[in-house]
Automatic annotation (TrEMBL):
Function summary: Catalyzes two steps in the biosynthesis of coenzyme A. In the first step cysteine is conjugated to 4'-phosphopantothenate to form 4-phosphopantothenoylcysteine, in the latter compound is decarboxylated to form 4'-phosphopantotheine. Catalyzes two sequential steps in the biosynthesis of coenzyme A. In the first step cysteine is conjugated to 4'-phosphopantothenate to form 4-phosphopantothenoylcysteine. In the second step the latter compound is decarboxylated to form 4'-phosphopantotheine.
Gene: coaBC
Name of this chain's protein: Coenzyme A biosynthesis bifunctional protein CoaBC
Top-level taxon in the UniProt lineage: Bacteria
Gene source species: Streptomyces griseicoloratus
Reactions the enzyme catalyzes: (R)-4'-phosphopantothenate + L-cysteine + CTP = N-[(R)-4-phosphopantothenoyl]-L-cysteine + CMP + diphosphate + H(+); N-[(R)-4-phosphopantothenoyl]-L-cysteine + H(+) = (R)-4'-phosphopantetheine + CO2
Organism classification: Bacteria, Bacillati, Actinomycetota, Actinomycetes, Kitasatosporales
Keywords attached to this entry: Decarboxylase, Flavoprotein, FMN, Ligase, Lyase, Magnesium, Metal-binding, Multifunctional enzyme
Length: 225
């Protein structure tokens, strides 16, 4: 093994990682989106592959090169992401939801470009909820012992919000990080705490997204036994 390389402790495992951010179309030229770069999810996919796992990366609008040896499934919307994650998770040992999933989508899609009218204020955009994919895969594990990990970016009461969210989602681990104007989104580095459903708390010091990814896989590998 190369210096600093991890043991192939995920050999024989299939892991699913979602990455990037969904885009919810309003019309053929516009969408509602978010600032997720996909870097953390891609780092998770790369590090899992380096540790011997078979990796399926569900990639939502990330402008990043396909990691070598990883099966990449491109998606656009939250509904497409849900379909792809559910399909790939059927035989997965672990599912990590690093993607930023839009909570809402436009209630209607205009098949033609929405035009402004000279003498009128714009119509409000009506939204409907998207399904909660993390809660769904946590509640209906495709195989016994499947490990499910979520991510949460919080701005206030980071740990309290994280604990409540972990419980609400029903996943095994929730990686919580604090976001601000210049924190996390698009950055090369990340800092977080991993909350475990068993009450565990694993702080991850500020550092490259690969380091955070390796800590997540350490916890997943330990849980898988
Ligand atoms: N998630 C999901 N499906 C959704 C929304 C979120 O699977 N419709 C997943 C994300 O991929 C992430 C986790 O849930 O792993 C937490 O996302 P977050 O947006 O923090 O959770 P929400 O329940 O949407 O809470 P909030 O109201 O704070 O946005
Ligand atoms: Ca959300």
């Amino acid at each position: 093994l190369a210096r600093g390389a991890k043991e192939p402790d995920l050999a024989g495992r299939h892991v699913v990682v979602s990455a990037g951010g969904t885009r919810e179309p309003l019309d053929p030229v516009r969408f509602l989106g978010n600032r997720s770069s996909g870097k953390q999810g891609y780092a998770l996919a790369r590090t899992a592959a380096a540790r011997g796992a078979r990796v399926t990366l569900i990639a939502a609008n990330a402008a990043l090169p396909d990691p070598a040896g990883v099966d990449v499934v491109p998606v656009g919307t939250a509904l497409e992401l849900r379909e792809a994650v559910l399909r790939a998770s059927a035989d997965a040992d672990a599912v990590v939801m690093a993607a930023a999933v839009a909570d809402f989508r436009p209630a209607a899609y205009a098949t033609g470009k929405i035009k402004k009218k000279d003498d009128q204020e714009p119509e409000p955009i009506a939204l409907v909820r998207n399904p909660d994919i993390l809660a769904e895969i946590s509640a209906h594990r495709a195989r016994p012992g499947q490990v499910v990990v979520g991510f949460a970016a919080e701005t206030d009461d980071v740990l309290a919000n994280g604990r409540a969210k972990l419980k609400r989602k029903g996943c095994d681990f929730l990686v919580v990080n604090e976001v601000g104007e210049r924190k996390t989104f698009g950055a090369e580095d990340n800092e977080a705490v991993v909350l475990g459903a068993d009450g565990g708390e694993t702080p991850i010091p500020h550092g490259p997204k690969e380091g955070l990814a390796d800590t997540v896989w350490d916890l997943v590998a330990e849980r898988l036994g």
